[in-house]
Amino acid sequence: QLQLTQSGGGSVQAGGNLTLSCEASGDTYVINFMGWFRQVPGKEREGVAVIYTGDSTTYYADNVKGRFIIVPGGYAVYLQMNNVKPEDTAMYYCVVSRARPSHNWSNPSAYHYWGQGTQVTVSS
Question: What is the model's pLDDT at position 67?
Answer without folding.
Answer: 98
